[in-house]
Amino acid sequence: MTTNDGFTDVVTAPATSNSPARTFGTFAPGVGPVFGQGGLVYIGNEQGTLFALRPDGQQVWRSQLPNEQGILNQREIKASAVVGADGSIYVVGVIGRRPGQGTAVGQQATLYKFNAGGGLLWQTDFPAVNQKNGYTTAPPNIWSSGGTEVIMVPAVYPTGVGVALHLDAFSSTNGQWLADTIVTNTPATTTGTSDSFLTDVLNFLTRWPPIFRFTEPYVSDPHESIPLYGSPPLPGVAVFADRRGGAPLVVVSDGMHDVVGYTFQLNPNQFNEVFRAHDTARQAASGPMVLPDGHSAAGTDDGNNGGRITFPGPSGTELKDVKVPGGILGTPSRTANGEIVGVGYARQGGFVTMLNRDGILHRGFTTGQTLASAAVSRNHIFVATASALVTFEVGTLNPIQLSRWSGVALGGLWPPVIGPDGRVYAIVYNTPPPQTPPNTVVMASNTLFIFPPPPASVARGVGGAQNGGSIAPPH
Question: Is residue 152 a contact partner of residue 141, using CB atoms and an 8 Å limit?
Fold first, then answer.
């Protein structure tokens, strides 16, 4: 169960350049590693393979998603997995091949459960609604109450007049579909054939500002611009367990105007809406994360290289929005002290903002563009940009390490992730060399960088989050 807060309660070392690198096919934008029992690392690629790795990146096992309909309908993993309390791994595979016209046909999402050894336990297709299949690129999350785990995943369904974003619940025991609710109905805003309609709307929901807003990158150096490589996944849900008791709440963003909270109950299985924060001024919204005090935080993209952090429910205490530089498309993160870290996309680079309910505390800037959320430890903030992984001090937001990607790699679409032992993981896209001969076939690939943890003596010497200090905002 996760609140999507991007915080890992460990001490880290600044990310230096002397890290081992591993290649495991191609990763969809937004995908990151997750961690399970024994420190194993799990990640899935667009070739439909789920990998289990040791913390240093050495492969332990790999499992291929089954392809009942032939190689042309290869199932792809487009979002991060989630790990249950017993070590089981849940991952969504999708089908949506594109024939010569560029349209997607046969779209279908399937939820899979693997045991800790890589064995497939069950698989369940997302149910059809009005004879239309569900499709999703959102990561699954786990709702847990009284020892029962339920898998929660948002999914897109075409309707007669547009598209609907649903929230689906599945049993962790056998994959049975338990409940469904409509988060948002969106009228048609695109034209095209029935085959292409869902793809067009899905691309709209998954928001891609570099394509729609700017015909050419503003950044003169192409190594500072994020690669136009697919679309980020649909926002995943956050799950909030109130310390006062009761069943956890599920909080979901529709990626546009609404952040909605639901309770979920068993027997009968159903969702109940408890709050809806609607804001038509949002051009786009990040996924939600939930703070310990019960406020959720979501980012917006308001255009003109600016956005906000908004604070919808479940807390009943209303907080004002905080304006920040850059459009916040990645889910905000938090520090150990409860400050919020938002990473903003802008034409001229990336903005990093630390704030609390009273306003902005510190601002940072990166020359490379980024759409990725920050990863936060007790003592550091890590931000992945097109050109580098930047390490900031958590208390001051002072940049203390800039580790540029080697070769012709580009990042900024995959959030860095901190492991339980303090290692930092980051993904980049390997572009073809500039001197590639004509008609040469170059296989696309991604690289997983693994930055080492701090020495044990350093980890023992840092007792908690640092505080104080300030830097001037970028101009």
Answer: yes
